[in-house]
Design goal:
Elements lengths: L1 H28 L1
């Protein structure tokens, strides 16, 4: 059970990092 939570947390962090990069790219364009 703990393994599933750990994997889910890693996926969330990865997605959050991708979203953060996209936001920075959008700001750079403006």
């Amino acid at each position: 059970m703990f393994g599933i939570i750990a994997v889910g947390g890693c996926i969330v962090l990865i997605i959050w990092a991708i979203i953060d990069k996209q936001r920075k790219k959008n700001k750079a364009k403006e």
